């Protein structure tokens, strides 16, 4: 009797993509945890929201500054080693948080330690993994890995909010430490740096790719040289400026202060975390749809629509806190669809202006400006709440800036459709 065909083995590329997805998901969830701790830390230690917001701002700055150098770090050390060390640092930092008693300890742990650790395993890691391991389905894998940033909120925030509400913030910080610690051996066991390490070709490849030549010079100074050249181009400042506002209106205003603002309106922490999780769900849908639209519509017009819609929705947010519950759900759907929808058109415009060979590093700096905008908004929103007693100024200003970013997007170099970009700027 015939034994029949041998069962098809899962290609190792999909295992590596799955490990990377879980790592990116965990990193984003861990990094955003501090938003759950704002009110509990205020109540336990008497720290002002402006003081706690400094730690959030430092976290975002360190996270953003790592972006241009993360690719060089991964290329030099390999994805597996970087992922293991970064997760171990997150676990150690979260464990140390449990015993902290001073504000400077919060600034140090959630700023440089966790901010830089999670920044090392951010967007550049997903691009490197997708490029190394996939020839077919590369775009799909890139989109899935990008969606991990939104899904991190979906998975972790409601759970951590519930633990904080029922057990205390120390238990939530300890839970993050345990999750990060468990992820370390998982990544070490299943992650591989190159397809050759698993004895296979990249998924969809018919022949082994030519080995890449090592970058000339010190790879850690290359991002600085790229920044020097990009800073001479007007469109860099338009792209970086609009993405600065993107970070201001997402990570800074909403991710950091939505839950404290909900607390001011007597909305339970778990309910507020659920709203943020819903934003995460629709964020994945919006990012995927935006990628599809970017191939068909002038990306400048898409950015105008995205930023303007976001600005209007933020300007309307505070009255919704006092309205029926379904209005916040509606906000979460609209705002979620828009959360990272700005990424695909911004990447396409960056490649159109600077050329594909330099687009990665240039976008790293543009992404850095995104996190700097988030840091500025996180600190200023906390300071405004402490000084004025509410978030009216913070969210209204974010709304105005969103509309301004939409208008500014129209002045980025004309590219027509994404398939017909302007010649690269040299």
Structure description:
By secondary structure, this protein is an all-alpha fold. It folds into 2 domains: 196 residues, Up-down Bundle (Growth Hormone, Chain: A); 197 residues, MFS general substrate transporter like domains (Growth Hormone, Chain: A, Up-down Bundle). Helices cover 77% and strands 0% of the residues. Helix 3 runs antiparallel to helix 4, helix 11 runs parallel beside helix 14 and helix 11 crosses helix 15. It is globular. The C terminus is likely disordered.
Explain briefly what this protein structure is.
This protein is an all-alpha fold and 426 residues long. The chain has helices at 12-31, 34-45, 49-77, 79-98, 103-120, 123-133, 138-166, 169-190, 222-230, 234-264, 269-294, 299-315, 317-321, 325-338, 343-354, 356-388, 392-409. The chain has 2 domains: 11-206, Up-down Bundle (Growth Hormone, Chain: A), CATH 1.20.1250.20; 221-417, MFS general substrate transporter like domains (Growth Hormone, Chain: A, Up-down Bundle), CATH 1.20.1250.20.
